[in-house]
Structures are given as structure tokens and as C-alpha cells.
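Re-run requested by the PI after the first attempt was lost when the workstation crashed. Everything re-entered from the original request form. Ligand of interest: magnesium ion.
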Amino acid sequence: MIERFDPLKGVMLRILDDDGRAAPDLDPGLPDAALRALYERMVRTRAADGKALKLQRQGRLGTYAPSLGHEAAQVGLASAMAPDDWFFPYFRDLGAYLTLGYPLADYYHFWMGNEAGLRTPDGLNIFPIAIPVGSQVPQAVGAGMAMKFRKLGAAVVTTFGDGATSEGDFHEGLNYAGVYKTPNVFVCLNNQFAISVPRARQTAAPTLAQKALAYGFPGVQVDGNDVLAVFAAVREALATARGGGGPTLIEAFTYRMGDHTTSDDAARYRDRTEVKAWGRKDPITRFRLYLAHKGLWDEAYEKSVQAAAADEIEKAVAEAEGRPPASVDDVFAYTFAKMPPDLEAQLAALKATIPEGRR
Ligand SMILES: Cc1ncc(C[n+]2csc(CCOP(=O)(O)OP(=O)(O)O)c2C)c(N)n1
Ligand SMILES: [Mg+2]
């Protein structure tokens, strides 16, 4: 399917139209329970994201990068992954985390400023959030190479924004992946902005997906507000990767509906009419229409989904806030299995500056 959508011709893979009708030849044909799961994950993501913003405004959570508008891309990509695959995320990936089974309390705990929140529970193959833009790309390719050496038959998904495609790490990672045919799926969440820099000032290339062609593997532009399209593209790219067919770059074309982070005010550099226009392409609304056409959505169902999300969120907040505050040791504890001597020395030096009882 991916090869039918050539990024040089400017054709984007889209399955759901604006009214939530699926193109019959492209519909991935998921069972009803799986379709509802996609919807429930997107609703949970939006609710948990909105709660994080409120907590930040109340001083209960630190600087936060909101996911509003990215729900279809995040949930679609993670729903296509198998438990053996690995995920190398970036800082705007809440829906992917929740879909992969990451506890919301841990996620909040991290954004509340505690590194312990990023200690992935056993059994989940998720690397810590990459804050340096693009640094996760070569790491993901390294993991892909390891899987190839070990013949594990699993694949690696990494996410990043449009801005990351201007980083050297992106190009080095993709070049290596192309040469060694590593089992990688690169998902670029093109949300049209890197903080205040619009996509047109990021690169002169008409699409981001076409950058894969220079590295010798397929790239495809996908409607990032269409959960079925993202799911189908990532599922196919993962199958190719696991089967030894090499990497794929997927550009999920979407829009950052919120500010870059809670420290930003996007109204200062964005046209309000553009934001409004994208609001009408809301990924959750569109999928709700699709479910309704299939008889899988009604008000009672909506209420139960919203109630379950609200309940989960309240419990997660209580759990995260109930944990003891980070200690000085926590700042150093989670990078190495055994702390190297220079870090031990730094920890001791820092502790010496803090009065006993406040460490
Ligand atoms: C290497 C590096 N340079 C600069 C920054 C500061 N910074 C944080 S996010 C960001 C923009 C990222 O934009 P994009 O890749 O499009 O992702 P988005 O935030 O839009 O999801 C920048 C420049 C950083 N974190 N790392
Ligand atoms: Mg961006």
C-alpha cells in the first residue's frame, strides 16, 4: 500500500474522509473491539493531556508539552506495534505511551519533575523520552542494528517532530539505516511548527517523507489526523522491517493545536484562522463519525468512555502526588546501572552543599 503513495507526487495516504467514511480499498478491516480500542485510547489521551495542562497551571506539574491534535498519530502508531518491538519516543508522545501500557501515574510523575517516572516498567520496551531534539534517531537505529545482529525479528519505532529533520542526528540515523537495512520505522510527527518556526522555514523540500528517498528507502506522507491511515502505514512498515525489508519513513501530517509547551504562547506567532481551520479536522471527531456510521458509537458509550478516562486520571494523579519527593540521589541514579566514580564524586559534592535532613 505504501508504494502507492509517492511523496514526490504529493499524494498523501488517507483512509477516512472528513465525514468519517473509509475508503473501502484501504480500510485495514479491524474488528469492532479493536476499532473501539483506538477510539478509547484517543479519548484517554486527550483527557490525560488536558489534566496535565491543568496541573501545570496549578503548580502541581512542571513545564509540559501538550499533545492536543496528535492523538490519532500517537495512538495509531503505537497500536500497530507488537510487544517485542521497541519504542524510542520524544517529548510529545502521551498517546503512544498510554497505548503501549505505560502507567499514567509514572508519566505524570516524570513531568512533575521526578526522573524515577521515566523508569520503564519491566516488560515494556520503551526508551526514556528524548528531550534533545533528534538524539533518539541514531539510538533507535543502533537498537535496530542490534535486533538485526541478534536476529530477533522485532522492529524499532522512533518518533520525532518536523523540526528534528533539520538535525544532523536525523540524517546520520537515516543514512545508516538505509545502508544497513535496519528494521526501523521512523515516524515524523509533522505538526507544522518547531516552537515558532513554521514548516516552510524548516526545509525547502515539499514533503518531509521524500527525505527517505535520498537514503534509499521508502517514505510516505500520511494524514496524521486519520488514526486508520497512521495505523495501516505503521503496520505495513513494521511488517517490512521485521521481514528484513529495511526501514521506512512515515510523515504524519498533523497540527499542534496547543502551545509548544506551557512556557510558550503560540498566539504570538500563529494565525488564528489557521488554528481554527485545523480544529475542524479534529482526529477524534472524525473517528467518532466513522464509529457511528458502523453502529459502534452512541451517547451511552461516549459517557462510559469519558467516565473511565476521568477515573483513571484521578487515580493516576493521586498516585503520582502521593509518591515521596525526589531525593538528591534520584538526580544521579537512573543513567548508569553502577554509578561511575566521577558521578559519585559530583553527588557527594552536591550533597555537601545541602543541609542534612533536606537531602
Ligand atoms: C538539540 C536541541 N536543540 C534545541 C532544543 C530546544 N527545542 C526543544 S523542542 C524544539 C522544537 C522541536 O520541534 P519539532 O521537532 O517540530 O517537535 P514538536 O515540538 O513540534 O513536536 C526545540 C528547538 C532541544 N531540546 N534540543
Ligand atoms: Mg513540530
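Saved to the shared folder this time. The beta strands are 86-88, 156-161, 184-190, 193-194, 197-198, 219-223, 248-253.
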